[in-house]
Predict the structure.
Amino acid sequence: MSTPLKLWTRASACVLLGLASGAGTASSQDAGEGGEGGGEAGGSVPSQYRLLLDEAVDPHYDGAAVAAAYADDVQVAYEQSHAAAVSLQRAVEALLANPSDATLAAARVAWIAARQPYLVTESFRFYDGPIDAPHTGPEGRINAWPLNEAVIDYVEGDANAGLVNAFDVPLTRASVIARDQVSDEADVTTGWHAIEFLLWGQDRAADGAGARPVSDFIAGNAATDRRREYLRLLTVLLADDLHHLARQWDPAQPDSYAAQFLALEPHEAVGRALTGAALLASHELASERLAVALDSGAQEDEQSCFSDSTWQDFAWGLAGIKRVYYGRSNTDASPASAIRSLQPKLALEMERRFAEAERRVAKLNDPFDRILVSPSDSEMRANAEATVIALQQLAAGLRDVGRALGVLVIVPGA
Amino acid sequence: MKRTFFRMALLAYGGTLAAATSQFAVAPGGALTRVTDNRHSFALPAPGLSPKQLRDFNFGNRLFNTNWLVAPASVEAFDGLGPTFNRVSCSGCHLRDGRGRPPIEGEKEMLSMLMRLSLPGVGAHGGPLPHPAYGDQLNDRAVPGIAPEGRVEIDYEEIHGRYDDGIAYSLRKPTYRIVDSAYGDLDETLVSPRTAPQVVGMGLLEAVAESDIVAREDAHDCDGDGISGRANRVWNPVSGRVELGRFGWKANAASLLQQSAAAANGDIGLTSRWFPRQNCPDLQPDCGSVPHGGQPELSEDYLRKLEFYLRTLAVPARRKDARAAHGQRVFEQLRCGACHVPHLVAATDTTLSLLVSQDFAPFTDLLLHDLGPGLADGRPDFAALGSEWRTAPLWGLGLVPTVNGHSFYLHDGRARSLEEAVLWHGGEAEMQQRAFRALEAAEREALLAFLATL
């Protein structure tokens, strides 16, 4: 490509915000948004994704069809995630109605199952879409980690810790949200990992997950009653947030993001789609969840440590990246289908990179925390390092795909 | 340099405007600038980091967010908190790499600010003289079995004033009381409250050539513009020398490594190569007897990664506001830039190639200025007198509400808005403050709108 890379000069889609009103007041942080490292890459997202190309080199493909298929799939993915969160809610209700080892185990199974379709949607972050829109996106409320367990419930060494035991704080949706990540990013009170901690408890075992006893959920004392109500509230809040996201991606809703997205210049829309997938691979998966954990060796850096289900965080996250690139089905318009006709060699290279990333992720040790305590020359650590590279290579590939499709995908470090 | 600027302003307003406008066109962080306007705007890596650098940055970020644990803990690399401390992590005070604030109604603790202490006199290496029982800052928390040193209560008094056009304003003047003091009385003790500043762009400030900073000194106001300005000279335990002070509200730290290691020791209670002793004053005998988290608790490798992280945080780009151009003209008319120098340049020989020769726009001269009795803390800090403060950089001011959910400014967060921060200026900036009060309301608002775009 001989044309220098320049940003398209169209008006920015970014919302410019002035000073927050209410000078001198310290509001509790507006609900949601950010939380985990996500926004840290999100801020690098340019407001325009279209490359300024000459007519002569502007790649010809049906960008509008790619964007439409993407938007449709995002809606489907959030609906699937919402449905799974409702199943989790039902399983928690069953646990609370009749606390037993069996209903607790079933609720845990439901949590692990409900994570999977959510992880697929993580590719829809990093371009200020509904999930992480400035000021309104619920990402931080849904998926923040790592978290201070002691903000939520009792921990080893402090039997009276957390909101569960803060008897003077009313347990309502508003009070829980108001206490989320106010004075410390790790003071998380909501979302997947707060629910995970309530279901499993701390993971103190060398092998195996946390082992919270079912007695923690038997009604009749002040703390268990509050724990029950807290858990119930969090599962309802999670399902509601996912419902909101599915509606935001429903073009039939008049104020939906989907309607705006479909009205974008198609390159802009394709740029957003590819940016989300690329940053999930390079920033979130390769760096935040893998390289940092390898460098620290601390179990705290394991994302789903209470349930010991971190392996699936990688596997299903990668599945989401793949779905953005290939589309939900082979017949849909997708970046992959466009690349196959425009640049067959790059299409083959992407096949190779996806295969390598999948091979490496499949080999990541499960449970993940064994990798962190393994010696520096262990095979499982070497494979984890290779996974970092494979995910970075995948992100660099998605950047190249963007260039071939006339859109700018910025991947820090690539 | 200032003189030239002044004369130009007298000679040709248009010419000054053109020259100055180009200064104002500099991206805040040069090549380290990022377009961003959200809660994470102070937490982004600079563009252009290599994969290896980005990995170090991300690990530095992890360290910055690490909640240090009481030793002995199962996570050995991250234990060693205390014995006394203020917060358990860097981000505890610098939330999302942003700015701290005083307690708000209903809060009893200082969550993101602290109180420096000393006795009258001069300590080792020319610094403040630590209190024998409390050291040089009040640690309001402690590990189990050790008493926290005390805590601070603040009373505010409203001071009412009026602009020249008759519009009223009100400033709140704080007074500080140390209560629950656990290690004896604090009579005669000098105190200085300090909020945590946001930490973007620190690598650039570190990279400015000393000669460029010193060139702006005018300790005896020889040019007669009412503004003096002199550099602080501080002891740097890392180099073992007295050096130009650049960081902190009184420019009492010479380098990021020194500042980080000092804060880790003083605020979190971590020992390091440069601060090998626990933060235990002589008159706290129990303090030294609790288990430590290794020697040192913060490894040199980790400290260097923190330093790298702080050097490579991106600086947020300015946001647009229709009133900003007007406000910039007011900023120039009032000559705010005499101290809040818009534009600095990183040296050619700085060790991180990303920073070399960057033009950037921090709006500071890194010098000490007398800001008058209203803001004075009466506590000397190396060369800084009790009424002197380092010119605070203005970059990122307007993003504080977005990132940290508040708009408290100045060293102790007494200003509840940018407007109040301007009104508190006295001493060398008394003229500017009076000129601000004499402006028409629309001009005042334009200036504040301009500041909020920084």
